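Most newcomers find our protein records easier to grasp once they have seen one. Each record describes a single protein and holds just a pair of labelled lines. A learned vocabulary of local backbone shapes supplies the integers on the structure line. Nothing more is needed to start thinking about how sequence determines fold. The record below serves as our worked example for the rest of this section.
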Amino acid sequence: MKIRLVGIACAGLLAACGSQPPPPDWKSNSHDALARYTSAYLKGDARVEAVEFEQARTELAATGQPGLVARAELTRCAVAVASLVLDPCDGFERLRGDAPPAERAYADYLAGHITPADVPLLPAQHRAVAGGREDAAAVQAIADPLARLVAAGVLFRMGRASPEVVALAADTASQQGWRRPLLTWLGVQAQRAERAGRREDAERIRRRMDLVSGPR
């Protein structure tokens, strides 16, 4: 009787598993590759970032869904903006015509020219900054460190990054150990200190940058 009950239980489990097939490989493969890409980019590992992004894009392109590939391209543009690499988001722009409205709105936000009507299409954590609040409190209210850096980068691109925003971005990158954005935000601080005639502050920041860069 026990054997029979065990057999029935196993059959039930198999039936339950059979009714819920595992997600397709491209979902987990692309997600993991994008996560590894993001980590490598922020740490400044150019070799790994190139390999991982190509893998993620290949997995997503296999679905034939432009919106998914556009989202990956936006990830690449977002981590660049977080690091103050403000090049045009060409990879996304080639897909813009087939991208969903939310992706187009986010691309415009990253480029620093989103329209008020599109602000509700953004992720909730970016709406305050996109809606015109440029103070450090609006940036600090963003819980996710990467999203916080992206918001600071957008403000910088628009010429609206206050010293408090720049300091918050540098502190965020420092806390996460993200070498690439830390160096760029410290560079901004050093340049501003030099222009203001605060030589000692600039030299102190340059020493921090040398420490982050490592031995030469």
